[in-house]
Design brief:
The structure is a homohexamer. By secondary structure, the first copy, chain A, is mostly helical. Chain A is about 70% helix and about 0% strand. Chain A has one domain. Chains C and D meet through helix 1, helix 2 and helix 3 of C and helix 1, helix 3 and helix 4 of D.
Chain lengths: ~80, ~80, ~80, ~80, ~80, ~80
């Protein structure tokens, strides 16, 4: 399966932690699609990783992606209940 | 069918990856509708594709569009389960 | 029916494309209500239609309006299935 | 009933247009609560009503408020169906 | 019950107006937790209460908090219907 | 269980207050993952904790994370009803 925007072409993950990692990857892959040049992205990364406002905005994007992933996984309800 | 804002006039896609591509297209088509001049959009693209803050904001728009598309597709639940 | 914020006073549309058009209109009508002077809005439009960051933010507003319209129309589910 | 943040202390409205008006009022009343001085708000209004970026952000707030109001009213489904 | 982020440790309120007040309090308590120094917050308040763009952003945060509170209270549906 | 993005790898919390604390932690852990250098993050914190606009944006991220956590916990409905 050849995908560029969602690893494994699925929103389903084993755990919330995995869902969170997926949210970060999905957010990054949109930026990669919009700016495919690796060297430009590297330069931009050096900017945003030292910019408080941009880091907070990245947090906003990840939170939004994660809300979709969490809903897709029914908030990992059965896993949580098995642990309880 | 003559559409300018949603390809195929449908939110339904075969896979999450396709849904993600649709989210990006839908985000771009709103900008195209608001600024229909191809040469101006080309100039603007040269700006935003090298601007970390704008790339992050594009990620936010795509995340929001995708949340709607994912809900429309019931998070591609049956496809995921068939693959599992 | 005299309305100024939602054409036809309804969130129901025939297709996703129509829903998208409605989202753009609803976003514009809030701005028109907040700034009713046509000449000032024309001046502002000349600014935002050439500003990449503002165009992206317009995309964000439209995405948010559309998520509500899509839910109101049950994501146009039956129409999609009839076409499928 | 003495309220300062939601007129009539209810999210229920007769029509989508009324719901949209309520969204705008709710957005304004939060600002009024945060900045209760009428003359300062008047000065601020003169700024934001001529600022394209701020008008777009107001559109974002109204869209978010409206999504809650629309859900509370089940998207005015029965009214729409009676008209259909 | 010793809480610092949600008064009474509950999202349930008697009315929409109370839910709106809770949304404003919850938004403020996150800022208080991030910046616990009262005198610094007082200085910051003098800035944002006279800044149109920041007041609009506060409106956005309150709208987001309120959408969660409204869902938790089933949009105060029975109260609304008893009044009707 | 070795996690870096969600403490205890679960969205389930005992109370709304705990859910709110989790939202703040989740928001911080995304920033930590994006900028893992402790001394840089300390410098950035000194900036954003004195910047009104950034504190408001942090409030927005926390509100978004919390909406997901609250849904995962069914808005802590049974706990609220036991207290009522």
């Amino acid at each position: 399966m050849n995908t560029s925007l969602i690893p494994n072409n699925s929103l389903i993950t084993a755990t919330p932690e995995d869902g969170r990692q997926l949210a970060i990857k999905m957010a990054r892959l949109v930026i990669k699609t919009t700016q495919p040049d690796d060297s430009i992205r590297k330069t931009l990364r050096e900017i945003y990783e030292k910019d408080a406002a941009m880091l907070i905005q990245i947090g906003q994007v990840v939170a939004t992606e994660f809300s979709t992933i969490a809903a897709a996984n029914h908030y990992w309800a059965s896993a949580d209940r098995l642990d309880a």
